[in-house]
């Protein structure tokens, strides 16, 4: 066995021993041990959740839910059946997969289908209770860059998430957020004149 492999094995064994020890203290309702367990594992577990959900907010919520489950069910951990980190990561993975299913169902029920062929001609038709007339809003939207007005309409009229808009335009989410933010600023300026 090479020296680096032996060192990695020793490190993983000592890490597993530490996590097993922390879990055994958690079984005794030791909140400090639970805090240490969180500090030792949360970054890697959050990474697992993110790789499954592909959404930072969802991954953070999954991690929070997983740690609540870990606290409530730490007495279920059986060291002879698996390493401590494997047990922890299994809880996170199952929570993350449940979250993906939930987000998909929610997305299907909340979104109005968008006819992408008419994306160029989107217009805003607010109710009579709205402060601005449709003519004024459409005039201001027409002054925006095309992608800014389209992303604003997709986000606020049709309820698409930033991730969905990003996929539609094949553009990074942060760019989409920037288009929307800048577009809303210009829209607000136009409407105030």
Overview of this protein structure:
The protein has 8 helices and no strands. With 193 residues, it is mainly α. The protein has 2 domains: 3-110, RNA polymerase sigma factor, region 2, helix turn helix motif (Rna Polymerase Sigma Factor, Chain: A), CATH 1.10.1740; 116-192, Arc Repressor Mutant, subunit A (Orthogonal Bundle), CATH 1.10.10. It is elongated and about 70 Å long.
Name the features.
193 residues, mainly alpha, Rna Polymerase Sigma Factor, Chain: A, Arc Repressor Mutant, subunit A, 2 domains, 8 helices, 74% helix, elongated, disordered N terminus
Can you identify the CATH superfamily of the largest domain?
A: RNA polymerase sigma factor, region 2, helix turn helix motif
How helical, in percent, are the residues? Answer: over 70%
Strand content: under 5%
How many structural domains are formed by the residues? 2
Give the ordered list of helices and strands. Answer: HHHHHHHH
Q: What general form does the structure show?
A: elongated
User: Structural class of the helix and strand makeup?
Assistant: mainly alpha
Tally the helices. 8
Number of strands: 0
Largest sheet report:
none
Oligomer: single chain
CATH architecture of the largest domain, please? Answer: Orthogonal Bundle
Kindly report the CATH topology of the largest domain.
Rna Polymerase Sigma Factor, Chain: A
What is the averaged pLDDT score? 81
Rg, Cα atoms, Å: 24 Å
CATH top level of the largest domain is Mainly Alpha
